[in-house]
Amino acid sequence: MSSHLIPNKLISGVYDDNYLGFLEERSKSIFILIQRHVIDARANIQQEFYQEPFVKNRNLRVFAKFNRKDFEATFNLKTGEIVFNGQRYTSVSSAAVAVKKQVTGKDRAVNGWEFWKYLDEQSQEKIIATLREHVGSDNTPQLNIFDN
User: Fold this and answer.
1) Most buried residue, 78, 88, 102, 141, by most Cβ within 10 Å?
2) 3-state DSSP: the chain helix, strand, coil percent, rounded to 5?
3) Could you give the CA distance from residue 59 to residue 82 in angstroms, rounded to a whole number?
4) Residue 138: is its pLDDT beyond 70?
C-alpha cells in the first residue's frame, strides 16, 4: 500500500481518533508533491521547450462575443486589417464598433485589441492584443490555425 502513498499508520488505525489532523498532514504532503513535480517543473519545461510561433502573410480567424451572440472575422497579421461581414476595416477597433452597432444600432467605442480573440496552437483563447507587437513586421507570429 505504500506504493499508493497510503501510510501504514492509516491502515493500522492510528489516525482514527485524529482524522482531521491526518487530512491536514496528508494534504500538505500531496501539495509538496504537486509543487515539486508540476508547479516548479512548469517554468523549466516552458523555458526549455516553448517558442513563440511565427508566420508571414496569413489571415487569422478571430471571434468575439457580444450580447450573447458570436461573431467571426478574419484578421490579417501583416496589415492589421479585419474583414467582418465582407467589409474590410483598417483598424481592429472600427471592426469591433461595427459588431456593436450591428447589435445595438449605436456606435459605441471599444478597444478592438481586447474585443477580438483567437485560438492559439493549444486551443487556448487569447485576445489579439497578444499579437499587436508583430503586426506589420516581418516577424509576425506563426500560428497553425489560419486561413490562407
Assistant:
1) 141
2) 45, 20, 35
3) 9
4) no
